[in-house]
Amino acid sequence: MSSLSRLKLKPHEDRRLREGHLWIYSNEVDVAATPLKNFEAGEQVLVEDSKGKVLGIATVNPNTLICGRLIGRDEKYPLSKSLLVHRLQIALSLREALYDAPYYRLVYGDSDFLPGLVIDRFGDVCVVQIASAGMEQVKDAIVEALQQVVKPAGILLRNNGKMREVEGLESYVEVAAGEVPDEVLLEENGVKFLAPVRHGQKTGWFFDHRESRAALRRLVQGKRVLDVFSYAGGWGVQAAAWDASEVICVDSSAAALEMVAKNAALNGVGDKVKTLQGDAFEVMASLKQSGEKFDVVVLDPPAFITRRKDHKNGLAAYRRANEIALRLIEKDGLLVSGSCSLHLAREELVDVIRASARHIDRAVQIIHHGHQGGDHPIHPSIPETEYLKAVFARVLPSGV
Q1: Torsion of Cα atoms, 291 then 292 then 298 then 299, to 10°
Q2: What superfamily in CATH does domain 184-397 come from?
Q3: Is position 340 annotated as part of the catalytic site?
Q4: Closest to 200 measured CA to CA, from 258, 114, 247, 147
Q5: Where are the domains of the chain?
Q6: Residues β-bridged to residue 131
Q7: What is the pLDDT of residues 177-224, one digit of tens each?
Q8: Domain at 81-178, CATH class
Q9: How far apart are CA 72 and CA 110, in angstroms?
């Protein structure tokens, strides 16, 4: 018999879990029978339905809206090093089947049945992000399991994300094992990059757009390319490596643009890649005022809609960005419009492009839809795990 405390759900609140979802909301808990205040943040509990039938083991945080995250259906297997090793092996087998080189998201939270845990792999270095109190409780076991399964030379904990604040967790960045340099090497679509894992955004790199960036290869040869919200040059440097005639990368961060220059030099295309620092909207407006035109414009902004209540303002930002970008594109040019906003549907992004094009009297043809790579698998019961969009649109005069 398990020694774990029990968390009881109200009648009929077990349906989502039975259908495959992993989250428990605080208003689904029978707090009369099992008061949430009695649990410690990160504690593991047995989840049971209103009739007392066990549904699995979850980690709990009584202080958050998502108060429980199911980590297994079998009560014999709590979250431990043994379970972590097993889940890491399953995750690794998928990535090794998909990719020839060890550069990918090794663990993508709920989709890899490890809610609250993200691990990006950069060859011999792994960068870990813990976003739940439950995973924080087993931090040492995560490191040990990772050492056993992947045997990295260094493990960095980049535990400073916004979700940690929601979970009531402290922010910190520390080396958990071995040695981790400030910048690590990776390869994507045959192009080499340095990722600033200690001081860059998130884990230092965004593997999720890998397949969309690969789709750009056939479309940039001999073209003039503008990469807006470029970060370290994932789109722009690859375009230059694939024989674009000129690339301009735009970002508000001087540190990010320093990485662009390093990555361009690393691939022998430093002479073709220029950078412009500043607010993306202001830089694009200035380029338009100067009469600049590009064959390809890549627009890959941060999430303009981080919360559902931000939808109206965020949608307006997407419209504004896409309209300015379209004004910079040559006749028969290409717009690549991306979004990492979970709360912006793919259909809405397409409509933003359509409406923006009509507003400036241009016609568009959608020629490709990009999705997150296979190292960001989608959990079919958790729509929130599908967030990334990239729309490739050919831009033509309205009369064609």
Answers
A1: -40
A2: Vaccinia Virus protein VP39 (3.40.50.150)
A3: yes
A4: 258
A5: 5-72, 81-178, 184-397
A6: none
A7: 999 999 999 999 999 999 999 999 999 999 999 999 999 999 999 999
A8: alpha beta
A9: 11
